[in-house]
Amino acid sequence: MARATSGAKTVPAESRSADEASGTPGRMPVLFVSHGSPMIAIDDSRFARGLDALGRSLPRPRAILCISAHWYVAGTFATAAAHPETIHDFGGFPDELYRIQYPADGDPALARRAAGLLAAQGATATEDWGLDHGTWTALVHLFPRADVPVVQLSIDGRLPPEAHLAMGRALAPLRDEGILILGSGTMTHNLRHAFGAMRSGDTSTPAWAATFDAEVARAVERRDEPFLCRALADEVGRLAHPTPDHYLPLLYAAGASLAEDRISFPVTGFDLGSLSMRAVRWD
To answer: Residue 6 domain-assigned?
Structure first.
């Protein structure tokens, strides 16, 4: 059985649910997770432990469709490789992090299915990308055995927020086909502030970060899609996200949710002062 290596943990088979063991998944949850720094893959932090616990609570999907902040390009693409590469798309981190491999299979049929659901946006399947760290740093905690196929979906940076929400809505039928839809970004993502806090040692949470995190959480609970789409338009939103890449995965997840879904926040709190590590679950 393939397993993520060099820092990933293994979930004992007996910790998984009876539904998972049956091999007949029902409607899958939708998740948004905040991955923060790539170090979440190897650090023993409360945020990493929160993702471990979240993973243990999930039913086993047939496959995972992940929308990662780190495939932010001009176009919508789905990874169609049968064995996607583990991409180490960062610099200046410990060697242990670069040694991690997440050897999950791909799912070319799912890539084509997702592209078909997004045909109106010109989506296509491609083998020119693999699993970047927005995907695998979360999955080493959620599914540490790397035994569930994974397809990654790009974010078209040319599109307005409403279009990303609509694409999430178009992908929602996958949930009834055993597919876990996972958005991976960071709820607040101002790296200049985070690096400054790391250098100074002042990791107090600024008001703008706390305000944005709380307002978006309330909007998620109230299913206030207009607010979610305009959240980056004011000064607080621009401070929370100087660029939109780490916010937009939330819109795909919110779009794929259903009115009857229960909403919970299995991980909360701030890292390096201003990085909200909030996770959202709809099921």
So the answer is: no
54 closest CA partner among 26, 30, 18, 25: 30
Contacts of 200 (CB under 8 A, 6+ apart): none
What is the rounded distance in angstroms from the CA atom of residue 69 to the CA atom of residue 55?
A: 20
Cα–Cα distance measured from residue 129 to residue 85, given in angstroms and rounded to the nearest whole number: 8
Over residues 1-12, the pLDDT tens digits come to 343 554 433 333
2 belongs to a structural domain: no
Percent over 90 (pLDDT), the chain? 85
Domain count, the chain: 1
* Residue 87 neighbours by CB under 8 Å, 6+ apart: 129, 130, 131, 132, 133
Residue 209 is part of which domain span?
26-282
Is residue 20, in this structure, part of any structural domain at all? no
- Quick check: 69 and 32 in contact, CB under 8 A? no
Q: Which two tokens stand for residue 35?
A: 């991955």
